[in-house]
Design brief:
The chain contains 15 helices and 21 strands. The chain is an alpha/beta fold. The protein has 4 domains: 127 residues, Methylthiotransferase, N-terminal domain (Rossmann fold); 110 residues, Transcription Regulator spoIIAA (2-Layer Sandwich), CATH 3.30.750.210; 120 residues, Transcription Regulator spoIIAA (2-Layer Sandwich); 64 residues, OB fold (Dihydrolipoamide Acetyltransferase, E2P) (Beta Barrel). Bound molecules: iron/sulfur cluster (SF4).
């Protein structure tokens, strides 16, 4: 199959959330240590890996689309195809029975077995063995604490501080695909933060499916995030995704008070109606959520809140949807990520509640919330015109190589001209906002703003 004496070439595609991106970095590190190399060029690949997501219908469909494309490739040349991550875990029967072109299935706790399974598959033909390999057992202990992820260039390091989730929100597949909640040793996390700074990744985002329930011995999330913010060289610390049930005062104080911790909290609402929240098993009421949002703003009025919302969850009535609508009117989110409910296999909701809201009603509710939120975001952004904000330089703007793209610590994207004053990726500069849309701020770094 592969050319003798040439390291096997691996192409890896990642779907879904930031946790999957992080897992792909772990996979690269594990494979590199075992002699594999990576290629962006699919034509040159001996191995095609897809690191998959089972949360959203969209990511799920994309993976099936890619598999259909690979069928034709595999008919023309030898190729090992592997499906990793949440879909591998959740759909193992479906993928092994109905997709004979999938050789390797590895769930989120099985990445250490991947080098061995790939080596076996690559040599299977000459040894007369089956290429099939499976590692889909969930672990109560695996945190990959000793594996340093292989990061791309840039300033961003996403660092998983825990794996799995014990919350069992009824719509969510994560507790089944990623298993029970396990927190990493804080020493391992801090070592990874130091290594990230060393390689120039000075904006750290702490990741977890339920990041603020982190607990290891007497370390809780407030203690950990403060320790990370204090690591020399760290410029900014972000975190995602928290659950509204785990926001003690110490954590709110840490976010409000430490200059390196970004003034942005993603606070998933999902629904603003108590009956639906209970069906979703979210464990907070509408009032508790609104009280928390008010408390966050009381401690630091400038903290930006963003959220996730599901429209058309099982049996959601128009009146119950309007409760969500009114929360969005009340909270003044900087941004909201709004989705139609889509039933995921093996979840509590799939087993207990019929998915009975017509697709067009779900879509219409999504549109109404998007139409409500967009002008709120635009207004919040426009209120910043004339203000000078500290913006971290992250990359070239996608619009033009002559512009920089950066983010405020409230997570708003800012674009400005490179010709203003020289800058380097990773710098934090004062940028004066000249114009704003719902998507972006346009700014200028000039003598006025430097001294502002
Ligand atoms: S908190 Fe709920 S939505 Fe988030 S990963 Fe856990 S079960 Fe899923």
């Amino acid at each position: 199959m592969k050319q003798p004496n040439k390291p096997p070439q691996v192409h890896i595609e990642t779907f879904g959330c930031q946790m999957n991106e992080y897992d792909s970095e772990l996979v690269k590190s594990l494979l590199r240590k075992s002699g594999f190399e990576f290629t962006e060029d699919r034509e040159r690949a001996d191995v095609m890996l897809m690191n998959t997501c089972a949360i959203r219908e969209n990511a799920h469909n994309k993976v099936y689309g890619h598999l259909a494309e690979l069928k034709a490739v595999k008919e023309q040349r030898p190729l090992v195809v592997g499906v990793l991550g949440c879909m591998a875990q959740n759909l193992k029967e479906e993928l092994t029975d109905k997709q004979p072109l999938v050789d390797i299935l590895v769930g989120p706790d099985g990445y250490r077995q991947l080098p061995g399974l790939l080596t076996k598959a690559l040599n299977a033909e000459e040894q007369g063995l089956s290429r099939r390999g499976l590692a889909v057992d969930l672990s109560e202990y695996e945190t990959y604490d000793d594996v340093l992820p292989e990061r791309d260039e840039g300033i961003n390091a996403w660092i998983a501080i825990m794996r799995g989730c014990d919350n069992f929100c009824s719509f969510c597949v994560v507790p089944y695909t990623r298993g029970r909640e396990r927190s990493r040793d804080p020493e391992g996390v801090l070592r990874e933060v130091e290594a990230s700074v060393e390689s120039g990744h000075t904006q750290i985002t702490l990741l977890g499916q339920n990041v603020n329930s982190y607990r290891h011995g007497d370390w809780d999330f407030a203690r950990l995030i403060l320790a990370v913010a204090e690591v020399p060289g760290v410029q900014r610390v972000r975190f995602t995704s928290p659950h509204p049930k785990d926001f003690p005062g110490a954590l709110l104080d840490a976010v409000a008070g430490h200059p390196n911790i970004c003034k942005h909290i993603h606070l998933p609402l999902q629904s603003g109606n108590d009956r639906i929240l209970e069906l979703m098993n979210r464990t907070y009421s509408r009032k508790e959520y609104l009280d928390l949002a008010a408390e966050i703003r009381r401690r630091h009025p400038a903290i930006a809140l963003t959220t996730d919302i599901i429209c058309g969850f099982c049996s959601e009535t128009e009146e119950e949807f309007l409760d969500t609508y009114r929360v969005v009117e009340e909270v003044n989110y900087h941004a909201a990520y709004i989705f139609k409910y889509s039933e995921r296999k093996n979840t509590i909701a799939a087993r207990k509640f019929p998915d009975d809201i017509p697709e067009e009603v779900k879509g219409e509710r999504v549109s109404r919330l998007v139409d409500l939120q967009r002008p709120i975001t635009a207004r919040i952004n426009r209120e910043l015109i004339g203000h000078t904000l500290p913006v971290m330089v992250e990359n070239n703007s996608k619009r033009s190589p002559d512009q920089w793209m950066g983010r405020t610590d409230t997570n708003i994207t800012v674009i400005w001209s490179k010709s203003d004053i020289p800058a380097t990726v990773g710098d934090i500069h004062p940028i004066t906002v000249l114009d704003a849309t719902a998507a972006v701020l346009m700014g200028r770094r000039d003598a006025t703003s430097v001294n502002a």
